[in-house]
């Protein structure tokens, strides 16, 4: 099982698909490059997850 990545953490949001079937993935480079962290239905949910992933205070 992967360990928790050290801070500071960096993640990026990737849009997958087009139209009503699109989704958003949160990806980071820990433990491997381009690791899928989570999937979200909206960009707002993905931004919230990114904020929580990167902010040590929100862990």
TrEMBL record:
Protein name: YaiA protein
Domain of life, source organism: Bacteria
Coiled-coil zones: none
Biased composition annotated in UniProt, kind: Basic and acidic residues: 18-30, 38-59
Family annotation (Gene3D superfamilies): YaiA protein
Residues covered by region (Disordered): 18-59
One Pfam family cited in the UniProt record for this chain: YaiA
């Amino acid at each position: 099982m992967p360990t928790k990545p050290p801070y500071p953490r960096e993640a990026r949001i990737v849009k997958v698909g087009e139209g009503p079937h699109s989704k958003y993935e949160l990806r980071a480079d820990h433990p491997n490059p381009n690791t899928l962290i989570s999937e979200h239905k909206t960009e707002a949910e993905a931004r919230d997850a990114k904020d929580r992933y990167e902010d040590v205070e929100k862990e």
